[in-house]
Structures are given as C-alpha cells and as structure tokens.
Amino acid sequence: MSPDSELAELVQAVQRAHTLGTVAELLGWDEQVNLPSGAAEMRAGQHAALAEVLHAAASHPRIGELLARLEARPAGALDADALAIVAQARRDYDRATRLPADFVRAKAAQGSRGYHAWARAKAADDFAGYAPVLATNLDFARREAAYLGRGDAPYDYALDKHDPGLTAAAVDRLFAELKRDLVPLVRAITASPQAERARAAAAKLRGFPPDAQQVFLREVTAKLGFDYSRGRIDVSLHPFCSGTGSDVRMTTRYQADQPLDALFGSIHETGHGLYEQGLPAAQLGTALGINAGMAVHESQSRLWENQVARSRGFWAHFEPRWRELFPAQTAGVGSEELYLAINAVEPTLIRVDADEVTYNLHIVLRFEIEKRLFAGDLAVADLPGAWRAAARELLGLEPADDRTGVLQDVHWSDGAFGYFPSYCLGNMIAAQLWARVRTLRPELEAEFARGEFGWLLGWLREHVHVQGRRFGTLELVRRITGEELSPRHLVAYLKERYGSLYLR
Amino acid sequence: MSPDSELAELVQAVQRAHTLGTVAELLGWDEQVNLPSGAAEMRAGQHAALAEVLHAAASHPRIGELLARLEARPAGALDADALAIVAQARRDYDRATRLPADFVRAKAAQGSRGYHAWARAKAADDFAGYAPVLATNLDFARREAAYLGRGDAPYDYALDKHDPGLTAAAVDRLFAELKRDLVPLVRAITASPQAERARAAAAKLRGFPPDAQQVFLREVTAKLGFDYSRGRIDVSLHPFCSGTGSDVRMTTRYQADQPLDALFGSIHETGHGLYEQGLPAAQLGTALGINAGMAVHESQSRLWENQVARSRGFWAHFEPRWRELFPAQTAGVGSEELYLAINAVEPTLIRVDADEVTYNLHIVLRFEIEKRLFAGDLAVADLPGAWRAAARELLGLEPADDRTGVLQDVHWSDGAFGYFPSYCLGNMIAAQLWARVRTLRPELEAEFARGEFGWLLGWLREHVHVQGRRFGTLELVRRITGEELSPRHLVAYLKERYGSLYLR
Fold first, then answer.
1. Which of A241, A413, A484, B85 is at 20 to 30 A from B419, Cα to Cα?
2. Using CA atoms, how far apart are residues A241 and B46, in angstroms rounded to an integer?
3. Cα–Cα distance measured from residue A27 to residue A35, given in angstroms and rounded to the nearest whole number
C-alpha cells in the first residue's frame, strides 16, 4: 500500500497546530514557575498573540478540505488508526471553526471577569454578587453546545469535551451506585476511634526541611519510572503537570510541617507525567499520540498516588530511606503510625483538602448540582441552599457560609462545567485497572516492597499510554479490563484498605 | 492632529511580530536553562514552527502596503519618531521579504552543518576539513547582501546588520588608531613586574561556595539597579542575557575557584539587562523601543562591568560585604591584592579568556581578517597563516595550532560575519560615555564608594536607553557625547586605570 498523501497531509497540519500548542503550554508553565512579578501584562500579550496563531493553525481551511475528502471515502478504505485520527481531527476542527470569533472573544472576556468576580465573592462570602456571573456562564455553555450541534444536550456536550463519549446518563448511573456504598463507609470510618489516632499521627510530622523533601521525592518519582532526561520538577504555588512526550514538566510545593503533601502531590503529578511520557513520540498531537481524556489522565495520577504509594508494599521499600533522610523528625513516629498518617480520613467541607475516600463524595455533590442546573431543575439563586443540603446528605457536614460551600471552587467562574466528574471517574478507573493488575500479577505489592515498579509501568504503557485517544473513555476501560466501568472496584478497594485500618 | 491610522496599524503589526519574537526568545532561554536533555528534537520542532509563524508575521503584505503609503508622504508629513519607526520597519520588512525562502532554508541548513563541522575541526585541529564550510558561508553572506541590494559592499552590509549605519571604512579608521596606541600599552603592562603579582593574587581566590557567590552577586546587581521584579538570573553553561522590557533574563555560572568570573559575568549581563529594562514599554518592538544595535548594547554591559565594577569606588563599597560572606577565603588577601586580581592583565591566545585591555586586540585581529576575506585579498586556505601572523603582531603570541588560532571561535561557522567588531566598538563607546559622565559628575566614583549608583543609571536611561533605535550607532554617540566616536577615550581610560597599577 502506498502512503496516503491526504492522510499524511492531515497529520502534518494537526501536528503543526499541536506543536504550536506545546509552545503555548510552555508559556503557561513558565508563567507559574519563572515569571517575574512585573511581567504579567507582557505574558498576557504573548499568550494572546500565540492564541491567534494557534487558532489560525487549527482552523486552516486545508484541514477542512482534507477532512471532507477523507470522510467521503467508502467504508473500509481507512483502517482503524486512520479513522481515529480523522475523527479526532474533525472534533478539533469543528471546535476551532464553528464558534464565531465574537463568541470566543466574549466568552474569554466573561471568563476573566468571572474569575475576578468569584475571587471577590469568595473573599466577601457574597454569593448574591456572583450569581449573575454564574447565570451568564451557564448561558455561554449552552450556546457553545448549540454551535457544536449539541444544543439538545448541553451537559452531555460539557462532559464529552473532557472525556470523549461520556454522557450525563452514564455518569448518573455510576455515581448513584457509588454514593449508595460510599456514604455509609465514610460514616463508619469517621466514627472509628482510629480516625483520631490517624489525625494525631499526621500532626506529629513536623519540621521536614524542603531540601531533603526534594531529595526524597526525586528518588521516589525516578524509581516509579519518571524519566528526568525527558522531564523535570519545579516549584509553583499550585502543583500541576504540563508538557508531553520528551518534555514533561511537573511542579510541587514544599511545607516543612506537611511533608506528605509535596510527596503525594508529586507522585500524583508523576502519574500524569508517566502517561504523557508514554505517548507514542511519532504520533504526538494526533489521536494516536494524545491522552484519552481527563478521566483516564486522572486514573493514572490516582493509581500511582493512591493504589501504589499508599500501599504497605510501597512503604516497606521507601520507609528506611525516609527515616535516613529525616532521622530527628521521624524518631518518635512508629511505622504503623506513619502508615495511619498516610491514610488518614477526615471529612471536610473543602474538596481540595479531602482524603482519598471522602473526595469522591465531593464530586458526586458537584455533579448532581451541575446536572440540575443544566436541566433547569435548579435556579442559580437556589444554589447555596442546594449545596448545603447535599453537603449534609453526602458529607454529614453543613457549611456555615458559602465560602466553604458553593463558593469554594474556581472552576465554574470561567465556565468550566462538566469538569469535576473526571476526578471521581479517574478514581473509579484507577481502581478497576488496579483490580485487573492484581489479578494478573498477584505478587505486585511484594515487588513494590523490593523496590520494583517496572512491571506496572510496562503494563500501563502497553494498555493505556500507547493507546492514545483511539477509544472513548468507557470503551477504553472495557477493552483493558474486560468489563464495563463500575464503581464496585473503587468501593472494594477503599473497603479493603481503609476497612483494615479503621474498622477492624 | 488626529492619530495617524496607517502609522498606528504599522506599529501594531510590527509589535505583533515582535511579541512572537519574544516567545521564540523565551524558547531559546528555556533551552539553555531548563530543557531536559532528551527534549532537544522536540524543541527544534517548536523553534521551526514558531520561525515559520514569525516569518509570516514579519513579511505580511499589509506591512508592505502601509510602508509604501507612509514612505510616499511628502517631506515633513511625518515627525522624527514616525520616520524612525518607518525606517526600521522597512529594514525588517526587506530582510523578511527579499530573501527567497529557498535561500533562507539553505542558509539555515548550512549554518547547522557548519556548526558541527567547526566543532569536529576544532577537536581534531583540522582547518583543512573546515575550509570548504567557511568558503560556502562567505558565499552565502555575499548572496544575502546582494538580495538586500548591497552586493557591492557585502561586508558593509554584514556590519550594518548588527550596528545600523556602520561601515568597514569607519571601523577601519577607528581600529587602526586603537591598534597604534594599544599594542605598546599591552607590551608595557605585560613586561611590568606587577603582572606576575596580579596573577598570583587572582590565584589566591579559591573555594568560594556557589550559594554565597549567588547571594553576593544578587545583592550587587540589584544595587546597580537591575529590577528583579522585571527579570531574573539563572544558571546556564554560557552566560547570556535575553528578553526585554518587563521580562529580562540573565544567566551566569559558578566556579568555586574563580569567584570573579560569575561576579563580573553577571555584572556584564546586568549592563545588558538594564538597557533592555530601560526601553520604553509602550514602544517595544518599534524603533522607539528596541536597542540601538550590538555595539551600543555591548557599551552598556562593558560600562558596568569595567568602568564601574573594576573601579576603586565600587570596591570601597562592596569589599566589606564580600569579606563578610567569605571570611575564610579572603583572610589572606589584602585589599590591594584583591584590586590587582580584579584588574589582572595577561595576554592569551584565546579571546574569551582575555582581560579588558588585551581583548580589543583580539577583535582588531578578527576585523582585519574579515575585511580581507570579503575584499578577496585573503583566500580561505591562507587563513591559518594570516591568523598566526596577526596574533604575533597584535598579541605578541603565536598559536602553536589552529585550535588556539583561527578555529577558536564559533561565530563564522554559522555565517556570523561582521559580528566581532561590535565587541570592541562597545568598549570604545563605553569609554566615551564614561569620559562624558565623569565630566558631568566628577563625584561619581565617590558616590559608588557610598553605594550610590542611581545617578549613572538615570543618565544612561535618559541618554541611551529611552532613545531606542532612533539613531544609527555613530550618530547616537555623537548626540550623547558631543563628538565623533574615537578610540582615544578607551586608550586614555585603560592608560589611567592600568597605568596606575602596572606602570608606576
């Protein structure tokens, strides 16, 4: 078969836009890590100039022509990989061309205003001042869906944007089942006398010098497989992972009195980083060389952060080195105390402070509210009350104000609806992948205890990373694990790990 | 007068291209400072994609239309600032549009091949293997000049490229006079018994921890006026300064046994950085907001590095702090020894190792050879011999091989001819500016001794920095100092500073 020149040209155009996108992403990384305080305006100008260039590359008419020709071919003329490339290119091209420039500009301006309105409202605990912004953002989200031909199901569109193929109905089913099992589990753990011991153990970890924390977490993340010849880790206010392929950049932050934060945060980012480092280099930017979506991405970060790094096997290997680096700080902390501190559970009103178990309920809460907002079953003005009721039901806690309730998250302020569910779906997928690998490799945790993490990375590379975005989120999970995505693996994993610690 | 919409549109287009250029420059900075070793290929792809975008922005037909209209206006219709903007935009537009794409591609490929050929030839001391590359590079330089309408004077074109308005005849006159006075001065200094004492003093400076070096040089550069809210300093293999306006990034490198290197290197880069931070923010990218050229840029770095930071006044202020940070390392070094070490003179075959006095002769050597190459008076094959003869005449040293002779510099390998003279012209301009400010402000060095450096920066801001590129190199010097550029100020300065140390 001769090489397909139309397909090759499409790939070239897509990869060109992707390359320019990686430059924009580097500007964003640099802004968080390096930018002098006085250079914000200059950086905004650079972002704007590059955004214009990127849009021109992504909406180039030649891409439209090539897509039309490739899509017009008879069934069977393109193989599965080519079809995946064309489908993803169509998705990106439609997003780049179907939204009128005026709409894009207005939405960006609204997002910026929204962010500042949110920050003000949160500081002043003034939901009423923020409500009109939210209403406008909802309206923009609906209009965006309509431009993309999904005006009938704007929330499905919002979900699909982050996780291809996902629908509100599918998430609803998954979350309902999860909620049924998880609420009683959290109540039981919270009521356990062990909960207080876990908190006390965590509170004993004080005075860990950032330099030595950095040494430790670099050793750990390199051992897990992060390739520092194709990536780096720096410090930023909020941890994140950016970049792809051979240039993946993670960040973390150090606090002397919360040494587990930088460690688990950087292992979390390492999961994201391993995914991006594992994408096929030659295909970067096409459906064969981009991540499968946010939920799958989050499954990679969560798997390494939780299933792996909160396991006894992991600590059997790393605890001696940790004590060696921090002899004074760890002298009064027993091994079981350490393990309890690592797996402390404490319901909180604030999502970003939540432990691994409770976290999922914070997401269920947000999904239920988003769903009702988009369905028109909940008015923006009634959000604070709905939030309080849901927090009481799901977390067993009621926020005293909106600051610790509906105003706590930034996401909605710039219109990022449909984003939260990926966090919890990521946890579900991680648990389902974990169940699968434990069946395939029962000795896995014993290998961790010997410092061997290569088998797991190899398996993820083969079954997740190199798949790119060939498949939708749910189909990818089905193909890898042989069953539909289900919360039961997450519930079973949490019961096993936390039940053994708290409910024995 | 109503705002001129054609001029405004031209400025907007020029600034857009400039903004994209700053992104490309940031990619370059990041490559030297942060890039993971395995990401070189990916970065090359980003550079290439951005170069294409930049070229499209700089050669946009609308710029050509606007220039034609603005240039067609009757004399007096545009004020001096507008004329400067138009002239610089024309210069950039012609460079972007008159070189055929094939030529640009071929020249870039040749530059890349040339670099590797040079590195190989230098390692193997094999000039013969490198000669064909140089011949091709010369040919490319001549063709480039011809495309820009300067086929009659390709070396003038090469000089003007770095320093607007400069000609080989002008440089020839300046360098001949400089050479006449400088060769005997270097001979006299070298023969002085003080020369050996200076070397011995420098050799006593050992074991300076990089962390403390960094503390010191940050204090020094901030005191000189570098605004760290609009810039930063990092570590790279070769020190440089990049960026402009509110985001200026310098680099340095630390060696425990050569503490003066990082210090003077970073003060040098601070001179460049102060210039870029001093350009008018609203005009960045136009003739009113870019630097005047390489020689003027170098005058700023040299003035702070040499005239200021090698002065007794400077050290009267900073020596106590230096001894405080390095008590053990400086215990056996007297103040006069320190000052001698700072101003050590020792002819060397290698330009980049040269002291402030000898350095200029290295440049004269390169200029004389470039001039003869372009005039056709010297064949590429005869370069090694010509270099040896010139080194003997100018430096009193003869290289034993080509590695320490004609093969030492990277510049010609990618076709950067006409670049060297700016270094020495920068020294001349620095000395002439220095003579001027000492007349205006006789108490300047006494102020340095009190840690006051603000007057000098204010004066440079007003007379150099905010002028941007309104004037050609020689005209700018004439306007600021009231006389033609002349080497006599450099010679007088060197005689005064080094004569008092070595020839008393």
1. B85
2. 19
3. 9
Residue of B nearest to A33 (CA): B34
DSSP B113-162: HHHHHHHHHHHHT-HHHHHHHHHHHHHHHHHHHHHTT-TT-HHHHHHHHH
Among the options B6, B25, B269, B368, which is catalytic? Answer: B269
Q: What phi-psi label fits residue B165: left (phi over 0), alpha (psi between -120 and 50 degrees) or beta?
A: left
Give the pLDDT mean for A448-469.
98
Question: Going by C-beta distance under 8 Å and a sequence separation of 6 or more, which residues neighbour residue A410?
Answer: A115, A118
Residues of A in contact with B45 (CB under 8 A): 19
Helix (H) or strand (E) holding A233: strand A231-235
* Dihedral sign of CA atoms A423, A341, A347, A414 in order: negative
Report d(CA A182, CA B123) in Å as an integer.
68
SS (H, E, C) B387-442: HHHHHHHHHCCCCCCCCCCCCCCCHHHHCCCCCCHHHHHHHHHHHHHHHHHHHHCC
ipTM summary value: 0.93
If you ran DSSP here, which 8-state letter would residue B284 be given?
B
Q: DSSP string covering A112-162, please?
A: HHHHHHHHHHHHHT-HHHHHHHHHHHHHHHHHHHHHTT-TT-HHHHHHHHH
Residue A215 burial (CB count, 10 A): 13
Return the axis-axis angle of helices A154-162 and A127-147, rounded to nearest 10°.
Answer: 90
Query: Does B269 participate in catalysis according to the annotation?
Result: yes
> CB B42 to CB A246 under 8 A?
yes
**CA separation (Å) from A10 to A4, A335, A363, B97?**
10, 56, 38, 28
Q: Is A372 left (phi over 0), alpha (psi -120 to 50) or beta?
A: alpha
Amino acid (one-letter) located at A92? D
Query: For A437, which DSSP code?
Result: H
Per-residue pLDDT of chain B (504 residues; tens, 9 = 90+): 446 899 999 999 999 999 999 999 999 999 999 999 999 999 999 999 999 999 999 999 999 999 999 999 999 999 999 999 999 999 999 999 999 989 998 998 998 899 999 999 999 999 999 999 999 999 999 999 999 999 999 999 999 999 999 999 999 999 999 999 999 999 999 899 999 999 999 999 999 999 999 999 999 999 999 999 999 999 999 999 999 999 999 999 999 999 999 999 999 999 999 999 999 999 999 999 999 999 999 999 999 999 999 999 999 999 999 999 999 999 999 999 999 999 999 889 999 999 999 999 999 999 999 999 999 999 999 999 999 999 999 999 999 999 999 999 999 999 999 999 999 999 999 999 999 999 999 999 999 999 999 999 999 999 999 999 999 999 999 999 999 999 999 999 999 999 999 997
Tell me if B229 and A38 make a contact (CB, 8 A cut-off).
Answer: yes
C-alpha of B363 from chain center: 12
Q: Do B246 and A39 touch (CB under 8 A)?
A: yes
What are the structural domain ranges in chain A?
5-148
Looking at residue A347, its pLDDT comes to 86
Burial of residue B232, with CB atoms counted within 10 A of its CB: 0-12 exposed, 13-18 middle, 19 or more buried: buried
Look at residue A346 in the predicted model and tell me its pLDDT. 86
Contact across the interface for A36 and B245, Cβ inside 8 Å: no
Backbone angles phi, psi at B325, to 5 degrees: -75, -25
User: Chain B residue with minimal CA distance to A17?
Assistant: B49
Burial of A346 (0-12, 13-18, 19+ CB in 10 A): middle
The answer to whether B272 touches B300, Cβ cutoff 8 Å, is yes
**Cβ–Cβ under 8 Å, residues A250 and A233:** yes
Task: Give the three-state DSSP class for A76.
Answer: coil
B279 phi and psi, to 5 degrees?
A: -70, 145
Residue A217: both structure tokens together: 């977490």
**Residue type for B137, please?**
N
